[in-house]
Amino acid sequence: MHTIFETDCFVLKGTSQGEANKQLDLLTKDFGLIRATAQGLRYIKSKLRYSLTDFSFAHVSLVRGKEFWRVTTATKNADVSTDVTSKEGRESLYRIFALLRRLLQGEEAHPELFAVVQNMFDVLKECTLKNGYPIEAIEELTVLRILFLLGYVKDDPSLRSFVGTLGFEESILKLSFDARKVVVAEINRALKASHL
């Protein structure tokens, strides 16, 4: 008897496997980044087919196997490709997903990291600009928070107001926008230090 685990997730990438299966990189709320197999996903009759498209936000049921997780059921909650109306917003999230696939190694629960990505997604679903602040500023703030939560950015007093919260309140966006040079410099330093 296998234990079934349920969690919310973002589908970061899917890769075809065998005749009709797909291997999925999932950023999950409860288990971090996991690799899961969805059997028969590419068959037209598959119930999972439309719930686990790349860049979707879904609720999944999983069973842990010897090497990979296996998806048993899934319900799509939203989709970056259709719910974020701005092209710039979609491309920004695609870059965030690619960065996460580069930075995350092994399974480790990280609910704060998941919340940062979900908050960015929610903000970009609402509008193309957050009270006049460009999408680039939202992306930079998200990247800084991801790098901080993964230990690539030190707990510096000058950055604490940006990384000490997970939301995108107007006051935080104004601070980060006014300090963009500092934020971008720290992001570049951290990415260089990561060697990834």
Terminus-to-terminus distance: 40 Å
As residue ranges, the low-confidence spans are none
Could you tell me the strand content as a percent range?
Answer: 25-35%
How would you classify the quaternary structure? single chain
Task: Provide mean pLDDT, rounded.
Answer: 89
Summarize the main sheet. 5 strands, mixed, barrel
Estimate percent helicity: 40-55%
| Helix/strand/pairing category | alpha+beta
* Number of structurally distinct domains: 2
Gross morphology: globular
Number of discrete helical segments: 7
Number of beta-strand segments? 5
Major β-sheet strand ordering: 1-2-3-5-4
CA radius of gyration is 17 Å
Spell out the helices and strands N to C.
Answer: EEEEEHHHHHHH
Please explain how this structure is put together.
This protein is an alpha+beta fold. The longest helix is centred in the middle third of the chain and has 17 residues, at 87-103. Strands 1-2-3-5-4 form a five-stranded mixed β-barrel. It has two domains: 4-80, Nucleic acid-binding proteins (OB fold (Dihydrolipoamide Acetyltransferase, E2P)), CATH 2.40.50.140; 84-194, no CATH class. It contains seven helices and five strands.
Write a concise keyword list for the protein shown above.
5 strands; 196 residues; OB fold (Dihydrolipoamide Acetyltransferase, E2P); alpha+beta; 7 helices; 2 domains; five-stranded mixed beta barrel
Summarize this, please?
With 196 residues, the protein is of the alpha+beta class. The chain is 41% helix and 25% strand. It has helices spanning 80-83, 87-103, 111-126, 135-149, 160-163, 170-178, 180-194; strands at 4-17, 21-28, 32-38, 56-64, 69-79.
